[in-house]
Design goal:
The structure holds 2 protein chains of 2 kinds. By secondary structure, chain A is α/β, with parallel strands linked by helices. Chain A is built from 16 helices and 17 strands. Chain A folds into 2 domains: 72 residues, Alpha-Beta Plaits (2-Layer Sandwich); 341 residues, TIM Barrel. In chain A, 29% of the residues lie in helices and 12% in strands. In chain A, the strands form 5 sheets. In chain A, strands 6-16-15-13-12-9-8-7 form an 8-stranded parallel beta sheet. Chain B is of the alpha/beta class. Chain B has 2 domains: 73 residues, no CATH class; 298 residues, Alpha-Beta Barrel (TIM Barrel), CATH 3.20.20. Chain B has 17 helices and 17 strands. In chain B, the strands form 5 sheets. In chain B, strands 9-10-11-12-13-14-15-16 form an 8-stranded parallel beta barrel, surrounded by 5 helices. The longest helix of chain B has 26 residues. Classes of the chains: A alpha/beta, B alpha/beta. Chains A and B meet through strand 14, helix 10, helix 11 and strand 17 of A and helix 2, strand 2, strand 3, helix 5 and helix 12 of B. The structure holds iron/sulfur cluster (4 copies). The site of one iron/sulfur cluster has 12 residues of chain A, from helix 2.
């Protein structure tokens, strides 16, 4: 390691004259939270209130409920469909306006929505989906009264069994403004520019074709608003992304599709994708009928011929080869940072150190349980380790090697909430990449049908113009901005309660965590 | 390069409406009769299918249709009249080990012969018992992988069954060791016997046809060999006859044409083997050992006898040790046997076949990693025929899937599809690991990640002792 460091320090590059600065004017996006209600007529609510035929239409319920759940429009004889998703449920019982009790005719009955049984899954529970929708709508985490159990999922392991050990009273009193949620991405001190993002996350790669144009742009615009990044995914750099160049990571994947000097020169971060958590070790395969004229042009390939992204890079058989690739990119773009995205094999710690020594700025670990695109079920469930383990392993090994502060460690693969993000950082990551949550903010319901038939029935993971027209750009942007805003607030709250001034102070603080399945009396805290 | 192993597959439609996970409940009263009813907008056209079922099927039940659970219609309906529920019939399927999800994916695989693919990441539990408490490894930088999967390079799934010599001796450049007989299979899958309760006319001949089509073998109890009918004679090299303790040997003209035979473990096995070998010295003999309380120990002991070639360890259909109150699971028992034989330096000399609890292709890969050379299946093949695992037949009632009425084309096709797609999935897993040969996958626990180890190595160092299993 020593030798590599010495060699690096001797190798200061000439910067940044040679860099092609962004060629098109960059767009700014406001970070302001604005309401962005669901685009569906009927929202899915946690509780349902049934009105029986005993209702005498006295209007009392509409009058008492401060949340406007019951709607009796003037001039109408009957109630309209209730806004059940704003009802706070059984916790209303403690108030003086509980409609169920106040109805003089006992015509109302509250039940938990039986439909929730058919929604979501172990990782994304119905409560987590609904809470994320709420955040995307309002920019705030749902109030405790709503009773959403959304901070953890029901998978029974990893993040879902980890909790913060919050002290009764924070060790230091801090105000929201005292708290810094930004992280830096260049820790190499190699003369390349520093890149700082305002929140410890950026958006994951979703390629052209895997999601609609509007989705891609919404992601980019939200990233711009929060001074962070989004990633192109494999398959080229769309013209429409150019006004957001400064917040876009361009990806070089194993198929090298759409990789051109010009696109590499546009951006501040270039990502090498070795593998992805959703299908570790399997590369990619774009079916022939998806290779439309636009896709073919973008990828510079032949119309209607299936495209394989091999696994792994067929020109990389060693760390030296990896370094050669990075040198090539570093030469083509003198201001860019390099991120290396790998999956989580047994020797993930070695891979991370190797990648550092080859010159990467960011090591991005993508654990097996995440991913948005289509992948073989056998791979999603079984191949490579969950991210929770990988973070601990890699963080520890980087520390042992004395290089922890020379590289930025980014984790992804199944992080769903701001609580997961905080836990990942406490386990040892500097920051994270999110993907699925952004789609949930846009109305994804996790039905897993992203690539069947015409594509996503909810207009997200599809290029079918008919289906995609359900989402408009302003709405999409706002939903992601709102979710980011809610997350940031929650993160600030977590840091405040722990008495930490910045999110970087949280890194590796496993002593602030406990695991529900353990005795938590270990003497081996770092 | 040898000819590539390839199984011809063809889509074979189901005979019955699939029992899907979701059903839509709609209260038709109060419907506004909108011109643009959301039902027409279902991306999967499920409502139209519902109408079809009403017209066509006696066993119509609106719960049965294949809604994908996207909630679009529920959320868009003008009057909010639609609701989604989990189909209770779906939830009732299976026996707890063979879950509704396993049954549904098996139906789909037997229908399409395609590897199941879906979006939106993993949806299940973090970990679980049995095969769910391990992951397989992958390699960031290694070949062959995608190339192998797509046929430009060869990933071999073949395995050899029989006794292998510890070392080879040569004299004057000539091999002097006598090589014991070996049976080679292109896939590490053998078709296991079916309990009598599950038999229906033609099942056994169909299974044999599947074995022939996929190049593998089927275990048939010699007691039932008459069920094979005329096919028996032509395909003896695909048949492994099983002999109970008391069953007399098959006639010599049959023994001479077999490649592999199985006898139950007993105190007379040496004598039985000698009798068999006296007729056909090239016939490999497998000893069937039930994994009861003594199964592990017995298998290890058997492996030390120089006349034992193959040990077939058999757990119950859910992979559990038999007759134990707290049964061990097949993967753990296999690991113990395998590791013990490795320690004694004799693992490579014998072949281990493992049965029970292999419900998905991933289980096959994992069981091999834990130490089996070959696995066997029976229930998944039956499920491939739209069996719903209701056990009606076992209890003497009529099969709701009318399995006894299937045609040969349907039965052979669906079961062949299933083996083909399991083979493809094995290649996916091996490809990700950068492994070229199924023979080398066997016992490669270093290329697997076990829940207990990972927990201890990571969380254990920070959070003390694990108190929940
Ligand atoms: S308070 Fe009771 S009776 Fe009055 S409108 Fe509401 S439900 Fe009907
Ligand atoms: S329970 Fe409370 S919040 Fe819900 S509708 Fe009644 S008054 Fe409103
Ligand atoms: S198809 Fe389903 S899981 Fe995929 S993006 Fe759309 S809503 Fe989400
Ligand atoms: S929930 Fe989705 S798939 Fe199911 S019927 Fe409604 S629109 Fe169709």
């Amino acid at each position: 390691m020593e030798g590599i460091l010495a060699r690096e320090l001797g190798l200061k590059e000439v910067l940044p004259e040679n860099t092609i600065k962004t060629l098109v004017p960059q767009v700014e996006v406001d970070r302001e939270v604005k309401p962005a209600p669901s685009r569906y007529r009927n929202e899915i609510a946690k509780y349902i209130i049934r009105r029986s035929s005993d209702c005498k239409l006295c209007g009392k319920c509409a009058q008492v409920c401060p949340h406007g759940v019951h709607v009796l429009k003037p001039g109408y004889k009957l109630f309209s469909a209730p806004h059940l998703n704003v009802c706070i449920g059984p916790s209303c019982q403690k108030t003086d306006h509980y409609c169920i009790d106040l109805c003089p005719n006992k015509a109302l009955q509250m039940v938990e929505n039986p439909m929730l049984k058919s929604m979501g899954d172990y990782r994304w529970t119905p409560d987590m989906l609904m809470a994320t929708w709420k955040m995307a709508e309002t920019g705030e985490a749902p109030l405790p009264e709503y009773g959403y159990d959304y901070e953890t999922g029901a998978s029974g392991g990893g993040f879902d069994r980890l909790r913060f050990k919050f002290p009764e009273k924070p060790p230091v009193e801090l105000q929201d403004d005292d708290i810094d949620t930004s992280i830096i991405l260049n820790r190499r001190n190699d003369g390349r520019p520093q890149v700082k993002i305002d929140v410890p996350w950026y958006g994951g790669g979703m390629s052209f074709g895997s999601v609609s144009n509007v989705i891609q742009l919404s992601k980019a615009r939200a990233a711009t608003a929060f001074n962070t990044f989004t990633c192109t995914g494999e398959g080229g750099y769309m013209e429409r992304m150019k006004p957001y160049d400064d917040h876009v990571i361009t990806q070089i994947a194993t198929g090298l599709f759409g990789v051109r000097e010009e696109t590499i020169q546009r951006v501040r971060i270039v990502e090498f994708k070795y593998a992805q958590g959703a299908k570790p070790g399997l590369g990619g395969h774009l079916l022939a009928d998806k290779v439309t004229p636009t896709v073919a042009k973008m990828r510079e390939t032949v119309l209607g011929i299936s495209l394989f992204s091999p696994f792994p890079f067929h020109s990389v058989y060693s760390i030296e080869d990896h370094q050669k690739h990075m040198d090539w990119i570093k030469h083509v773009n003198r201001r860019t940072l390099i991120a290396t995205k790998v999956s989580t094999p047994n020797d993930v710690d070695m891979v991370a150190v190797g990648s550092y020594s080859a010159g990467t700025h960011i090591v991005h670990l993508d654990g097996g349980y995440g991913g948005t695109g289509a992948a073989p079920d056998i791979a999603k469930k079984n191949i490579a380790m969950p991210i929770e383990y990988a973070i601990v392993k890699v963080h520890r090994f980087l520390e042992q090697e004395g290089i922890r502060d020379k590289v930025t460690l980014i984790a992804s693969g199944g992080l769903r909430t701001s609580h997961d993000i905080a836990k990942a950082i406490a386990l040892g990551a500097d920051g994270v990449v999110v993907g699925t949550s952004e789609l949930v903010a846009l109305g994804c319901i996790r039905c897993s049908r992203c690539e069947s038939g015409r594509g996503c029935p909810r207009g997200i993971a599809t290029t079918d113009p008919e289906l995609a027209k359900d989402i408009d750009l302003d709405w999409g942007t706002q939903r992601i901005i709102n979710m980011y805003a809610a997350w940031r607030k929650e993160l600030v709250e977590i840091l405040k309660r722990l008495g930490l001034r910045s999110v970087s102070e949280l890194r590796g603080r496993t002593d602030l965590l406990m695991h529900l399945d353990y005795t938590n009396d270990s003497e081996t805290h770092p | 390069m040898p000819k590539k192993y390839h199984i011809e597959t063809k889509k074979i439609a189901p005979r019955l409406p699939k029992r899907g996970k979701f059903g839509i409940v709609d209260w038709r009263e109060d419907c506004a009769q909108c011109h643009n009813c959301v039902k027409k907008a279902c991306v999967y056209d499920r409502y139209r299918q519902e109408m079809q079922y009403i017209k066509n099927l006696d066993e119509f039940n609106s719960m049965f249709f294949e809604c994908m659970g996207c909630f679009s219609c529920v959320q868009k309906c003008t009057k909010g009249l639609l609701a989604l529920t989990v189909n209770p019939e779906y939830e009732r399927m299976g026996n707890g080990y063979f879950t509704p999800d396993i049954i549904l994916t098996t139906w789909n695989q037997a229908e399409t012969a395609g590897i199941p693919v879906s979006g939106a990441g993993y949806r299940g539990k973090f970990t679980g018992s049995g095969f769910d408490s391990m992951w397989t490894d992958m390699s960031e930088i290694v070949r062959p992988t995608r190339d192998g999967i797509h046929g430009r390079e060869y990933i071999s799934t073949s395995v050899d069954i029989g006794r292998k010599p510890k070392l080879l001796s040569f004299e004057n450049n000539k091999l002097t060791t006598t090589l014991p007989p070996l049976v080679d299979l292109p896939v590490p899958i053998i078709i296991e016997m079916f309990p009598e309760k599950y038999h229906f006319p033609n099942l056994i001949p169909m299974l044999l046809a599947v074995a022939v089509k996929t190049g593998t073998m089927i275990i048939v109890d010699w007691k039932y060999h008459h069920l094979l009918g005329a096919y028996e004679e032509n395909h003896l090299s695909n048949i492994i006859f099983y002999l109970d303790k008391e069953t007399p040997l098959p006639p010599p003209d049959i023994l001479k044409k077999l490649r592999l035979i199985e006898i139950v473990d007993s105190d007379r096995i040496e004598q039985r083997i000698n009798e068999i070998k006296a007729v056909n010295p090239e016939l490999v003999v497998s000893i069937r050992v039930e994994l009861d309380a003594c199964g592990e120990q017995r298998s290890i002991e058997l492996a030390h006898h120089p006349f034992i070639e193959v040990i077939h360890i058999v757990s119950d259909i859910n992979g559990n040790q038999t007759g134990a109150e707290k049964p061990k699971f097949i993967k753990d028992m296999t690991r113990i046997i395998h590791t013990s034989l490795v320690k004694d330096g004799i693992r490579d000399e014998i072949t281990l076949i493992a049965s029970g609890g292999i419900a998905l292709a991933e289980h096959m890969a994992k069981e091999i990693i834990c130490g089996a050379d070959v696995i066997t299946i029976n229930m998944p093949l039956l499920i491939g025929l739209e069996c719903r695992f209701c056990k009606n037949c076992r209890d003497g009632f009529a099969c709701p899937a009318k399995i006894e009425t299937i045609t040969a084309e349907y039965g052979i096709g669906r079961m062949t599809n299933l083996i083909a797609v399991w083979h493809d999935q094995l290649i996916e897993v091996m490809g990700a690991m950068g492994m070229r040969e199924a023979r080398r996958l066997r016992g490669e626990t270093g290329r697997a990640l076990f829940f207990e180890d990972l927990e201890e190595e990571t969380f254990g160092r920070h959070f003390g002792k694990r108190i929940r299993a």
